[in-house]
Amino acid sequence: MRSDRPPTPGKLIALEGSAAALLTNGCRKLAAANKTGRAAAGVSRWDASGIFFEMGMRASGAGVPSPKTLMLLHAADLSFRLRWELGPLLDQGRHVVAAPYVESYIALGKAFGVSRRWLADLFRFAPPAAESYRIEEPASVPGNRQSLRSYLDNSVDLLNGESLVWDPARVRAQVLAYLDALERRGGCRRLPA
Amino acid sequence: MSNFFPVAQRRQLRRRVPALLKKQESKRGLLIAFEGPDGSGKTTQRKLFQDWLKGQGHKVVMTKWNSSELIKPLTKARKTAQALSPREFSLLHAADFRHRLETEILPSLWRGRMVVADRYLFTALARDAARGLDLHWLMQMYSPILWPDVVFYFAVTPETSTQRVAADRTPKYYEAGQDVTGFEDPLASYQEFIGRVIQEYEALALIFQFVTIDAEKSIHEQHKLLRKAFEQAERRLWTEWNADALTEWLDLRSRMPEAVLEE
Description:
Oligomer: heterodimer
Largest sheet of chain A: 5 strands, parallel
Structural class of chain B: alpha/beta
Largest sheet of chain B: 5 strands, parallel
Largest interface: A-B, 36 and 34 residues
Number of strands of chain A: 5
């Protein structure tokens, strides 16, 4: 029987972290645990807009972005995800997992030396998540064991261009330290990998 | 791998910045921004002004809105597909501006070049606010703002802007503001949208003390006014106006490879 009642808005679930494979596993778990009827929760991942894919295809002489420029691009991608993935599913009453979400971007920007205040203002357009998790992950993930490249790896590559200014291991360590502090403050819960 | 710039070293740099800026003040170039709605004739005036500056013996660098080699292809593809929301439009333009600021505008000023900007960040503030975005959020996105020494604002009515644009071309989807007006007719949409943009511009002109040029006057008259206003204008001291923007850039420059931020 059809109901004319508007659907109850869905729940936005943030999953923060740094390693692509672990985030993917975490998404699967959260999606299965947050079904609406028979439907698993939707999932929204980084670079749905294709901005970063296209950045990877750019001509070598076009230069490299600075950390702030990079974060503006992450914000544009998140805005796209909110418009095309997160928003529509929530409006349909479905739950949806966003991985990564705002805190991961703030952590990343901070690791690149951008001020937290500027980052918090930049991502102010994103609605707060109803539930926030951070995926449990080791402090370092050896490069050759990573089958998927994350937003973090891609960002480090973009900033580095052909040089080696930013060390991915150190950036990752700073992102994880930020998420640890967030967890300690009660800003997110830990999700086993 | 050089990676992170030590905090102590950054603090030391920040302490040195005021003296560094004071020393650079007499050597640096001036930043002159040309703002106004489409059809206001600012590009014509910008070219005349640029030639005049060169005639005065200055080395001039020109920077155009939405022209960063790095970001423009992203924006262009999405504009063609009409796939941008106002916020995405705004964020990509901010990325484009920031890239040019850090790699073209600031290095040129530092080297003593005159930088003439055919549209500056006020274009984004006016257009994006006309699209309904929060002005405070927009200004934060561009912060710390590098204030130009002079901003020339070419003032026309929405009717004049529409007539001049219509005589030349059919405005494109985003130029016409069709993403926010919902009008199917590009010209009708343009007139509605440019009215909102001009309102925002006029508020900005007042708040930020632009030099307003009556763009309904003849080309020659405007050019004369422009020269006179420029000669009377006082430079905005970096230490007073732009210390934050310069500190951020010097900090960035000290951490980036030379290829990115050339001397």
